[in-house]
Design goal:
Structural class: mainly beta
Number of strands: 10
Strand content: over 45%
Number of domains: 1
Helix content: 10-25%
Oligomer: single chain
Distance between the termini: 24 Å
Number of helices: 2
Order of helices and strands: HEEEEEEEEEHE
Length: 156
């Protein structure tokens, strides 16, 4: 028998750690994990470049079946402007995926949420890093992942 929804949701804030770049919150009867992957603006001698990447996962519970399902949203944008003109790129994904990004770098003088720095802005991102603690908590409380038609082929 799975832990009742109110008790399960009360356990979610314990997943938050100051050592991790993401947080979990309870909104109604859903659990939302959010990760502001990178937000930086870099000033080159003749060009300004900005990058912004965000990820969230929303878990929905089905108390009748003691299962959970989830949806992921990934947003990324990058742009630059300089003496040669400008360009802008936007990426959006909603669904289920496995994604990894390692060490993106912007040189020059950079302004990030942490302040101003000289040199590269680096980050690493993996969906498993935010999913695993959450899915482990749910499974430890007797909840199982909802099985879809293709879940055996695309189990992430």
């Amino acid at each position: 028998m799975a832990t009742p929804v109110p008790e399960l949701l009360a356990a979610v804030p314990a997943l938050n750690s100051p050592d991790e770049p993401f947080t979990y919150v309870v909104i109604g009867d859903t659990i939302v994990g959010s990760w502001d992957i990178v937000r930086a603006t870099t000033l080159y001698p003749t060009e300004i470049t900005s990058i912004d990447k965000d990820y969230s996962i929303t878990v929905t519970l089905d108390p009748a079946k003691e299962t959970f399902d989830f949806n992921e949203v990934y947003n990324a944008s990058a742009g630059s402007a300089g003496s040669g003109g400008g360009r802008f790129q936007k990426e959006f994904f909603s669904g289920k995926s496995t994604r990894k990004s390692f060490s993106f770098e912007l040189g020059g003088v950079s302004k990030t949420d942490d302040g101003i720095s000289v040199g590269p802005v680096t980050y690493s991102f993996s969906t498993s890093r935010i999913k695993e603690p959450l899915f482990t908590l749910l499974e430890q409380h007797g909840w199982s992942r909802k099985k879809g038609l293709l879940s055996g082929l695309f189990n992430r």
